[in-house]
Amino acid sequence: MSIDTETARRVAKLARIKVEDDALPALAQEFNDILGFIEQLNEVDVEGIEPMTSVTPMRLKRRKDGVTDGNQQDKILANAPDAREGFFAVPKVVE
């Protein structure tokens, strides 16, 4: 697959990136280089290879997934400009 300057212009517009006309050929070449590298990666045979999280075989650390309230209500409300009955108090905006 080859990217021309018109396609590079469309991609830049879709990404909402302003690219000057004189920079479009270089951008198209960068896209082509990236696609070439992806084609190289597609040639690698990965059949039977386990996914890895690290280069060393290790299990990810796990913790008990327990729901808590954080027990920090007083610390959090200390920053509030106005707190009442354990909640943030905000001005009324709808009448």
UniProtKB/TrEMBL annotation:
The GO terms this record gives for MF are: asparaginyl-tRNA synthase (glutamine-hydrolyzing) activity; ATP binding; glutaminyl-tRNA synthase (glutamine-hydrolyzing) activity; transferase activity
EC number(s) given by UniProt: 6.3.5.-
Swiss-Prot/TrEMBL keywords: ATP-binding, Ligase, Nucleotide-binding, Protein biosynthesis, Transferase
Choose any GO biological process term that the UniProt entry carries and state it.
glutaminyl-tRNAGln biosynthesis via transamidation
Q: Is Cytoplasm a UniProt keyword of this protein?
A: no
Q: Does the keyword Transferase apply?
A: yes
EC class, as a word, reads ligase
Q: Which reaction does it catalyse?
A: L-glutamyl-tRNA(Gln) + L-glutamine + ATP + H2O = L-glutaminyl-tRNA(Gln) + L-glutamate + ADP + phosphate + H(+); L-aspartyl-tRNA(Asn) + L-glutamine + ATP + H2O = L-asparaginyl-tRNA(Asn) + L-glutamate + ADP + phosphate + 2 H(+)
Similarity comment: Belongs to the GatC family.
| Subunit annotation | Heterotrimer of A, B and C subunits.
Q: Which PANTHER family match?
A: GLUTAMYL-TRNA(GLN) AMIDOTRANSFERASE SUBUNIT C, MITOCHONDRIAL (PTHR15004:SF0)
Cross-referenced HAMAP family, in alphabetical order? GatC (MF_00122)
Task: Give the protein's function.
Answer: Allows the formation of correctly charged Asn-tRNA(Asn) or Gln-tRNA(Gln) through the transamidation of misacylated Asp-tRNA(Asn) or Glu-tRNA(Gln) in organisms which lack either or both of asparaginyl-tRNA or glutaminyl-tRNA synthetases. The reaction takes place in the presence of glutamine and ATP through an activated phospho-Asp-tRNA(Asn) or phospho-Glu-tRNA(Gln).
Q: What is this protein called?
A: Aspartyl/glutamyl-tRNA(Asn/Gln) amidotransferase subunit C
> What species does this protein belong to?
Thalassococcus halodurans
What is this protein's gene name? gatC
